[in-house]
Amino acid sequence: MLVDVVMIIAGFVVLVLGADWLVKGASRLALAVGIAPLVVGLTVVAFGTSAPELAVSVTSALGGEADLAVGNVVGSNIANVLLILGVSALVAPLIVHQQLIRLDVPIMVGASVLFYVLAVDGKLSLWDGILLSGCVIAYVVFLIVESRAEKNAVVLAEYDELTEEAGRPHSTLGNVAWLVVGMLGLVAGSQLLVIGAVSVATTLGVSELVIGLTVLAIGTSLPELATSIIAAYKGERDIAVGNVVGSNIFNLLSVLGFTGIASWGQVPVSADAIRVDVPIMIGVALLCMPMFRGGYEITRAKGALFVASYVYYVAYLVLGAAHSPVAAWLEQAAVTCLLPLLVIGTLVVFLRDIRRERRA
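The structure corresponding to this sequence follows.
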């Protein structure tokens, strides 16, 4: 058991470092050959933040642990909003740009619903994977065209650091080395992580889905967590929200899409995930609309609500895995009491903020 835990921790470390090295090498190479920083940021860097989820999901699916692959993505998307945005908002209230509400959050909701529709038959087929991958390619192309048309100074400024790095004396061979080492790190880290997680699940008698929804989901979301908290602490309160929403879109479209293609459509989706966890992921995505729209800010109070909701969800998963009768009570309480109260409270706050804006 101790060896398995060490493997999981080592896998997380190698995975995060591998993703960082991969992004560093790929971005420097791209900038060195004259690709615009904006394009690099919206492609290499964006895919890089989802690289841990992609590596773990593909490795899990190819190894026959499909529940880990699906649980990793679904759990990461839930953790990104409730845990990462919640903790970041507790550090400092987060600013939400109108473009996120107008474009990116609806795309996140649409991608969540699309995954549910594709997976409701109990599997992700090869054609499902191709469809999801095609959607992420179209999304990236749209972002590039939109940003260039609007001459988005904020996005360009965000990637000025990449341009500066490209101007420093880095050899092509050195950049290729970063790229190769990063890819090897992703492969090695995902292997360690999956092997350790499967062993722990077997030892504790916990389902692979629960391990994917909790341990792997939180672990592979560490890059987003670090980026968002540091951004909030430095006062860059708008970057944290965009980072999470963009990561969720890429997780659903690119990670699940490429996982479906790599496994040739052999990605079963468990009935438990379709019944409980995927609807929760959709609900969390929908919750972002009024929560982000209200005052265009995620306050500390909203952050506390997000974190409390995530603790409740994880407690439900853990108690359910232990076959505790309390898990059934938590589910019943959430459906009959907490969820209606959350919906009503969110609508009240949403309508109040709209009224204040109209008066202003």
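Strands lie at 94-95, 123-124, 267-268, 297-298.
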